[in-house]
Automatic annotation (TrEMBL):
One GO process term, biological-process aspect: regulation of actin filament polymerization
InterPro entries: ADF-H, ADF-H/Gelsolin-like_dom_sf
GO molecular function, one term: actin filament binding
Source superkingdom: Eukaryota
Annotated protein name in UniProt: Actin depolymerizing protein
Pfam entry (one): Cofilin_ADF
Domain named ADF-H: residues: 5-138
Family label: Belongs to the actin-binding proteins ADF family. Coactosin subfamily.
PROSITE patterns given in the database record: ADF_H
SMART domains linked: ADF
CDD domains cross-referenced by the UniProt entry: ADF_coactosin_like
Subcellular location: Cytoplasm, Cytoskeleton
Species lineage: Eukaryota, Fungi, Dikarya, Ascomycota, Pezizomycotina
Keywords assigned by UniProt, alphabetized: Actin-binding, Cytoplasm, Cytoskeleton
Length: 152
């Protein structure tokens, strides 16, 4: 297996991470994909300024990828908070060997993508719907003062 610096050698990855983290940047998400079917190296595949649904559209059923998403949560403009979600995606038709390597490689990716409230490991795009991820983020935040009652 490649050392962590090798799989994440694309200099655009660190810059995209900083852009997603920055309130001054319009970039709200990034997706990292493998350079080829046989490579362990990751490349910055795409960034965007939309929501998690826009990011999810870039994930293929036969692909493995990592994503990082900025989301705003709050009941009103005064309680709005920015939270981050780290996604480990292995599409339902991803090859077995790629999935096996991902458990080790996701740790290497976390050396670059370090700050997030929740991690979602999935092969089902339903798990990446905005309301599902928002509920995970709210649970991670602790207190939930929604009118609907407790999130638990």
């Amino acid at each position: 297996m490649a050392p962590p610096g090798d799989i994440l050698s694309d200099p655009d990855i660190a810059q995209a991470y900083e852009d997603v983290r920055s309130d001054k940047s319009e970039t709200t998400w990034l997706v990292l994909k493998y350079a080829s079917a046989t490579s362990d190296s990751l490349k910055l595949a795409q960034t965007g300024t939309g929501d998690i649904a826009e990011m999810t559209e870039t994930l293929g059923d036969d692909e493995a990828a990592y994503a990082y998403v900025r989301m705003k949560l709050g009941n009103d403009e005064y309680s709005e908070r920015t939270k981050f979600c780290f996604v480990v995606w292995a599409g339902p038709q991803t090859k077995i060997m790629r999935k096996a390597k991902m458990s080790f490689q996701s740790g290497q990716v976390k050396q670059v993508i370090r700050t997030y409230a929740v991690e979602v490991q999935t092969s089902d795009k339903h798990d990446l719907k905005a309301d599902v991820v928002e509920m995970k983020l709210r649970k991670a935040m602790g207190a939930n003062y929604d009118r609907q009652g407790s999130a638990y």
